[in-house]
What does this fold into?
Amino acid sequence: MNTIMRKSVLGIAGLAFAGGVFAGPAAAHAAPTVESGKPVAVAVAADKPAVDTTKLIPHGVQGAQSRIDLSDEQVGNVKAIIAATKKAGMDERAAVVSIATALQESKLENLGHLGDRNDHDSQGLFQQRPSSGWGTVEQITDPEYSTTAFLKGLKQVDGWQDMPLTEAAQTVQVSAYPDHYAQWEQQAADLVAKHWNN
It folds into this structure.
């Protein structure tokens, strides 16, 4: 009797194990479920490590957020800002601050002189002014140079990593509209998450 019972228990355990093995791969391809309105994280194998998104917006976004569709040229400028940020030895948060600033200043378009519509002699992605010492027109309309110049200013701001984005950006840019940078933080963070490891 013991032997029969033992074989039955082992048989049931074997079926349960086999069922789990066969169900495992199928379950791995199932769509993620949503519980209480929060998406469930799904592990995905990737060649490159994912960006730690909690570091991109450490203080949470401030106020209503804006978003624009980007052209290939604008995406190219995002990638140039990220490359310059890495070259400067700065992290993803610095790239978020830089991209949000450029979104506000130029909508990520490398603007030349706009004639009567120009804000003094402001040009480039960050609307930097040659007359204010940012560099020559040729320099500030070069995405790598203008980003490096912005980041150099950011590095000089004590504790910029612990500031809300708009405060860090404003300290460098000295804009007439200091609160406007905040509206681009989420799109900037999304762009850094997407392109940092490309």
Remarks:
- The mean pLDDT is 79.
